[in-house]
Write a structure and sequence with these properties.
With about 300 residues, the protein is an alpha/beta fold. It has two domains: about 160 residues, Nitrogenase molybdenum iron protein domain (Rossmann fold, 3-Layer(aba) Sandwich), CATH 3.40.50.1980; about 120 residues, Rossmann fold, CATH 3.40.50.1980. About 45% of the residues lie in helices and about 10% in strands. The chain is built from 14 helices and eight strands. The strands form two sheets. The chain has a four-stranded parallel beta sheet, with helices on both faces. The protein has a four-stranded parallel beta sheet with strand order 6-5-7-8. It starts with 14 loop residues before the first helix and ends with a helix.
C-alpha cells in the first residue's frame, strides 16, 4: 500500500526545464506598491498570510486541492513561476514540502524572503511531526513571524500587519477553548489515528494514542504497515480499546479505508481530519474549529 502521487500533466519535466522556462521572471516581475506578493506552499499558511496582510497582500497557495497529498506533490512550471516572482515565500519545512526546497535552491532571488514554519517553531529532527498547523497554541508565533516579514518588505504598512496578526490570534481563542475542554473532560482517553496529522492536537488535548504508532508512521511514509501493526490496530478497534478514530480523509487507500470501515462496524466514532484547508471553509480557524468540535462531540458519544 503506497500513496498515489498527484502528478500534473507537466510533472514529468525536470526541475531544470521548469526553471529554464521561468528564467528571467525575477527581473521581469512587477509588484504593485503597497501589495506584497506572497506564495505559500499550502493553503493553510496562505490563509494565515491573507488574514494578516488583508488588502496589502496578494496570496497564491500552491497546494489547495483537498485531493492532493502534499507529501508527494510534484511541482510544475506554474508553481516555479509563482515562486520565482514572489516577495515572500512561506513553506512548512521538515520535508513536508520538499518541492519548495528544490525550486528555491535552483532559482535564487535577491529580493525574495523565505519563511519556514518549522524554523519559526524550532522543530527539528528526522522523526518530527510535520503537521505543524495542528499545534494551535504555537500559531501566534507563526503569525508574528509572517507579520514581521511582511513589515520588512513593506514598512509603511507594518502597523496593519501587526494588527492583522493580533486579530488572527484573537480568532484562535474558540479553538483553544475547545481543546481545553477536551483536556479537562477527557485527558488520558485512548484514541487512534491513521496518520500523525492531528498529533499536536491529540497531545494538546491530553489524549493518549492507543493504536500502533508504527502503523501511522508507515502510512505517512507511503509504506505497507507490518502485519503486526495492522493486527494491533484492528484489535484496538474491535476490542474497543480506543474511544475515537481520527482518520486522514485526504489520503485514503485500501488499508486506511479498511480501518475506517472496521471502526464503523465496531461502533468506534470516526472523525475526519485533512492536511489542507477544504474549500468549504472561509478561514483556517473555521476549519480547525469544526474538527475540534467534532472530536469533542465524538468523545462525548455524539452529545
Amino acid at each position: 500500500m503506497h500513496r498515489r502521487p498527484f502528478r500534473s500533466p507537466l510533472a514529468g519535466l525536470t526541475l531544470a526545464a521548469v526553471l529554464l522556462g521561468t528564467a528571467g521572471c525575477d527581473a521581469a516581475a512587477t509588484h504593485r506598491p503597497g501589495v506584497v506578493d506572497v506564495v505559500a506552499a499550502e493553503n493553510m499558511w496562505g490563509d494565515l498570510a491573507r488574514q494578516i496582510g488583508g488588502g496589502h497582500v496578494a496570496v497564491t497557495s500552491i497546494i489547495s486541492d483537498p485531493n492532493t497529498d502534499p507529501h508527494v506533490y510534484q511541482s510544475n512550471p506554474r508553481a516555479a513561476a509563482d515562486i520565482s516572482g514572489a516577495q515572500l515565500v512561506i513553506d512548512n519545512g521538515l520535508g513536508y514540502d520538499d518541492f519548495m526546497t528544490k525550486i528555491l535552491r535552483a532559482g535564487s532571488s535577491g529580493h525574495r524572503r523565505v519563511l519556514t514554519v518549522a524554523d519559526v517553531l524550532h522543530v527539528t529532527g528526522p522523526d518530527a511531526n510535520p503537521h505543524l498547523w495542528y499545534w494551535t497554541a504555537r500559531l501566534p508565533a507563526v503569525a508574528a513571524a509572517i507579520a514581521g516579514q511582511l513589515a520588512a518588505i513593506d514598512p509603511r504598512d507594518a502597523t496593519t500587519f501587526r494588527a492583522g496578526a493580533a486579530r488572527f490570534d484573537a480568532a484562535l481563542r474558540p479553538l483553544l477553548a475547545v481543546i481545553a475542554t477536551i483536556k479537562q473532560r477527557y485527558a488520558g482517553t485512548p484514541i487512534g489515528y491513521t496518520e500523525r496529522v492531528p498529533g499536536y492536537l491529540v497531545e494538546a488535548a491530553g489524549l493518549r494514542l492507543a493504536t500502533p504508532s508504527a502503523f501511522s508512521q508507515a502510512v505517512e511514509d507511503g509504506n505497507d504497515p507490518s502485519p503486526q501493526s495492522v493486527a494491533g490496530f484492528d484489535s484496538a478497534l474491535t476490542g474497543h480499546r480506543v474511544k475515537v478514530l481520527l482518520y486522514n480523509a485526504q489520503v485514503v487507500d485500501a488499508q486506511t479505508t479498511a480501518v475506517r470501515e472496521l471502526a464503523e462496524q465496531s461502533g468506534v466514532p470516526v472523525v475526519g481530519v485533512t492536511e489542507t484547508m477544504p474549500p468549504a471553509y472561509r478561514s483556517f480557524q473555521a476549519w480547525q474549529l469544526a474538527q475540534d468540535r467534532a472530536l469533542l462531540a465524538a468523545l462525548g458519544g455524539g452529545s
